Amino acid sequence: MTIMQRRVEKKRPTAGEFTSGNQHDSPILQLKLYGPPMASNLKQVWVPGPLIVGAGPSGLATAACLKDRGVPSLILEKETCIAPSWKLRTYERLRLHLPRQYCELPFMAFPPDLPTYPTKQQFISYLDAYVEHFDIKPLFGVEVGNAEYDPSIGFWRVQTNDLEFICRWLVVATGENTEAVWPNIRGISKFRGRALHTSSYVKGDDHRGEKVLVVGCGNSGMEVALDLCYNDAKVSMVVRDKFHILPRELLGISTFGLSMFLLKWIPVEAADAFLLFCARLILGDTGKYGIKRPKVGPLELKSTTGKTPVLDIGTLAKIKSGQIKVVPDVMQFTDTGVEFVDGTHEDFDSIILATGYRSSVTSWLKEEKDEEFFSKKNGFPGTSFPNSWRGNNGLYATGFTRRGLLGAAMDAQKIAQDISTQWNSSGTVDLSCNSKIM
């Protein structure tokens, strides 16, 4: 049916009406807008509400907050499940690093019988229950290859495998940790043992009795080293940079919770001084064991650079006892091991790279230079928290606050409030002339 001007009245959704668990049963209008699609072989699809890219905790929280305000949304997820980073790329030993009350998504608490620090599987079960409770049904196996705002029609064109989605609002929820970072160390292809990133590490039992080198000493590196130690591996850990290590709890109180309380009442410098004083009393001088602290305090460093302090769960005790050996940075890999920057050589059976992740948003999101929201340097919003959630032309970001699940929950609620205001005030959507509903 060809039309000169078509006004589509917005209908308030019932539970699950606008989301779909499979691509062939999606409640979205298919149409042909004026102007060619980004690729001639793509079928165009109109999305009435926001389009969310990513079905991790950030995307799920945003969809739930939108639904609570009566706004339909559609989530695209390139993997075959929700929360793929948690389900497919985390090790068995993983627990939430923060107490559960700081990791809840909006409108749903953790079951009261869970421990303070839920396990990986307990958190995944929580997310599965969250999706079921809010009837969130992402489209799985749909990878975004290109997203670009089209000023001629005032909508976003989002190109996927074989579809081009047209939407007014685009929410980037792919998060901070999309791609594993492999360090550029000479000779890595020569190493004849096992070399893997922590995204592929499963459990220490797979390395029982081996000599293992862990490259990286963030929270993941420290946990993996401890897991290996518990499974009778001979563990060495590369410490390349200065970093802060803090007890996970101080006098039975979460260090994170205590930090948040302190920042409400005293300057960040004073809060840092207090935390470092307590850390020295409990952990001692970590410099004796090859772990040197930066001059800037842990909270100030987190705020300015996003670098998170390590919360110790027992790794430092293994370092002090010599069960985990701290070694200098790697100069190059050899056939059987590595050469360190101090000139020493050592053989290893396996090398595990705890070298972190990076955002990949700018590989598919195309923005005009004068309206650039995501930085091409690091794939993060250019504006800092708490204003990192809204860009231009209906573009939003969630899960890029460097404040974990708590930050993602805050983003989700702000985004939902902002979009719902526009949704409720506009009342109708114009499909421009020469449109054709197919």
From TrEMBL:
<protein>
    <recommendedName>
        <fullName>indole-3-pyruvate monooxygenase</fullName>
        <ecNumber>1.14.13.168</ecNumber>
    </recommendedName>
</protein>
<keyword id="KW-0285">Flavoprotein</keyword>
<dbReference type="InterPro" id="IPR036188">
    <property type="entry name" value="FAD/NAD-bd_sf"/>
</dbReference>
<dbReference type="GO" id="GO:0009851">
    <property type="term" value="P:auxin biosynthetic process"/>
</dbReference>
<keyword id="KW-0503">Monooxygenase</keyword>
<dbReference type="GO" id="GO:0103075">
    <property type="term" value="F:indole-3-pyruvate monooxygenase activity"/>
</dbReference>
<dbReference type="Pfam" id="PF13738">
    <property type="entry name" value="Pyr_redox_3"/>
</dbReference>
<feature type="region of interest" description="Disordered">
    <location>
        <begin position="1"/>
        <end position="23"/>
    </location>
</feature>
<keyword id="KW-0521">NADP</keyword>
<dbReference type="InterPro" id="IPR050982">
    <property type="entry name" value="Auxin_biosynth/cation_transpt"/>
</dbReference>
<keyword id="KW-0274">FAD</keyword>
<dbReference type="GO" id="GO:0050660">
    <property type="term" value="F:flavin adenine dinucleotide binding"/>
</dbReference>
<comment type="similarity">
    <text>Belongs to the FMO family.</text>
</comment>
<keyword id="KW-0560">Oxidoreductase</keyword>
